[in-house]
Design a protein that fits this description.
With 321 residues, this protein is α/β, with parallel strands linked by helices. It folds into 2 domains: 148 residues, Medium-chain alcohol dehydrogenases, catalytic domain (Quinone Oxidoreductase, Chain A, domain 1, Alpha-Beta Complex), CATH 3.90.180; 142 residues, NAD(P)-binding Rossmann-like Domain (Rossmann fold, 3-Layer(aba) Sandwich). It is built from 10 helices and 15 strands. The strands form 3 sheets. Strands 3, 4, 5, 6, 7, 14 and 15 form a 7-stranded mixed β-sheet that branches. The protein has a 6-stranded parallel β-sheet with strand order 10-9-8-11-12-13, sandwiched between helices. Helix 4 links the parallel strand 8 and strand 9. Pfam families: ADH_N (PF08240), ADH_zinc_N (PF00107). Keywords: NADP, Oxidoreductase. InterPro entries: ADH-like_C (IPR013149), ADH-like_N (IPR013154), ER (IPR020843), GroES-like_sf (IPR011032), NAD(P)-bd_dom_sf (IPR036291).
């Protein structure tokens, strides 16, 4: 089969379109013929060597949409089932193996393109909003990197849930209309968001802030987080750790919560099935859609990575396998 393989950490040029053996399934696993896979910022970090050690040759990719082509006799899945999945050894490939706990059936009415765009960002966003952040209708929330894949989903799911005020931040204000069309009430840049949040909340601050950027953005977020508010930290796309002092939280009764979908896939995969069921229903009913920025052929994975790194895109980037 064809797959995108890398043998060292470096820029996008290390991604090689190669022939590799079709993986074999073990107990409680399925073999899936991939239709599309998505490109996530975590893939960039993994390719660069900023996300754990490399077990080369390495195949990147977190999620996939496709069709079951092999399953065990007692499997809940059958050959021909249309599914989304979190494969165990990357998804930039024609065939992938996944643990049955990380495979979820999708309806015929949901296209593979839309299905491939959703697994990581929609399941993560739903958990962040409803389980970690525990949003309420009366909240004012801030969503950093609101034009990215997770940000696009957070904005739409928050709007669907009736959140009172949604403030999105972007690196380039040219993305303002895109984020507002998703449902944000206010869009501002990282340079101005503290001032804007305080203005929008009568100097009270936001109730919940969703931070995947870290670095200076984390510190600045605490400058506009309300008493009893929650900072939800789930990434560091800036490449730098965010910092805070214990006095930033205890005297103001504020919380800082962290969440990782990768950790949850590894240590508590059962937690994802009910969330996957809910977000698939939301997509099937077309209550929300995830804008697709661009689709590349699998062989052009390097170009897809370059687009992600440029940050000059809105929505999700896919690979057609």
């Amino acid at each position: 089969m064809k797959a995108i393989v890398q043998n060292k950490f470096d820029d996008a040029s290390v991604l090689s379109y190669s022939d590799v053996e079709i993986p074999k399934i073990g107990d409680k696993e399925c073999l899936i013929k991939v239709a599309y896979t998505s490109v996530n910022y975590a893939d960039i970090k993994a390719r660069n060597g900023n996300k754990g050690k490399g077990n080369f040759p390495l195949i990147l990719g977190l999620d996939a949409a496709g069709t079951i082509v092999e399953a065990n006799a007692n499997s809940p899945f059958s050959i021909g089932d249309r599914v989304i999945a979190f494969p165990k050894n990357g998804s930039y490939a024609e065939y992938v193996v996944a643990n049955e706990k990380l495979v979820f059936k999708i309806p015929d009415s949901l296209s593979f393109e839309q299905a491939a765009a959703m697994p990581t960002v929609s399941i993560l966003s739903y958990i962040l909003l409803h389980e970690i952040g525990q949003i309420k209708n009366t909240d004012t929330i801030v969503i950093h990197s609101a034009a990215g894949g997770v940000g696009s989903m957070l904005v739409q799911l928050a709007k669907l849930s009736g959140v009172q005020k949604i403030i999105g931040t972007v690196g380039n204000i040219e993305k303002e209309n895109y984020v507002k069309n998703l449902g944000a009430d206010v869009v501002c840049t990282y340079e101005t968001f503290v001032e804007e949040v305080l203005k929008q909340t009568n100097n009270q601050g936001a109730n919940i802030i969703f931070d995947s950027v870290a670095g200076d953005v984390t510190r600045m977020s605490l400058d506009c987080l309300a008493f009893y508010g929650t900072l939800v930290q789930f990434g560091n796309s800036s490449g730098r750790a965010g910092t805070f002092k214990t006095s930033d939280v205890h005297s103001s009764c504020r919380n800082i919560k962290g969440f990782s979908l990768g950790t949850t896939r590894k240590h508590n995969p059962e937690r994802l099935a009910p969330v996957a069921k809910r977000v698939i229903e939301i997509f099937e009913s077309k209550q929300i859609t995830l804008p697709i920025a661009q689709i590349f052929n699998l062989s052009d994975a390097a170009k897809a990575h370059e687009l992600i790194e440029s940050r000059n895109y809105e929505g999700k980037v896919l690979l057609k396998v």
